[in-house]
Amino acid sequence: MRGLRLVSALMLSALILAGCAGTAAPSPTATTAAKPAAATTAPAALTSPAATKAPAATTASPAAPTAAAKPAATSPVAPTEGSSSKELMVFAAASLTESFNEMATGFSAKAGGAKVTYNFGGSNQLRAQIEQGARADVFASANETEMNTLVKAGLVTATPSTFAKNRLVVITPKANPGKIEKLQDLAREGLKIVAAGPNVPVGGYMLQMLDKMSTDPAYDAGFKEKFMKNVISQETDVKQVVAKVQLGEGDAGVVYSTDVTTKVAPDVRMIEVPDAYNVIAQYPIAPTRDAKEKELGQAFVQYLLSNDGQQVMKKYNFAPAR
Question: What is the DSSP letter of 186?
Fold first, then answer.
């Protein structure tokens, strides 16, 4: 009996073990099938063509600067083909404003489109700026004094060329509030005269004119002193004298004949100064020693002296240099 029970127990244990083995077997199969499949799919996404394209875009990006750099490499060639990239700096007397502005157009066309930049002002101021190191390729003065100062200082080494001449006139506002009819009236007490400073070329010429008048019996004794007592301001350049007379801030002013332009003429009256008292202004020009554009500066001087340049000066009533 006991043997029978032992056999039954063994058979029951065997059945239980077989059942456990049968239940566990499918579990490894399911785990193995599911996990490898998922793992295989995930790496496939990392090595997809989209991931491969990203580095390709990075490679193309550096190529863009290489293509853009080509114009920069060829840009220095432009000055060789023409002067379009060059800029000429010209310091010029204020009385040259209108004529030189027109001159720039013709010269630029001859010089391959070179840009001309002007600094207009009193010649004495321009000379001082050059002495202080201001960049100027060319200096055009309304007198020889300022040019000679730069030559003596070694700041102009080329021989200056006289390119134009000018003469003095007296202007009054159109309404003529000072009732000035002749030059002798300028010494009448109570007038308001606008003048340029004595160091400005036109101011220096004016003083020479007064000296000549004072020696002539046709003018009152002490004419120069009386004239100077009527001076209410001394301007830094001739254009300021013109502007103040135009605006009626003075009864009269001494300027160049060329300052009575077509734009100014409707606002003023002009009284000629006879040759016996007049002072002929000489206009010299030269490249500077420290010119950045030496060749272009010399070309500008040559153009100004040429027939084309002289025709422009004549148009604005400058007398020819020779």
Answer: G
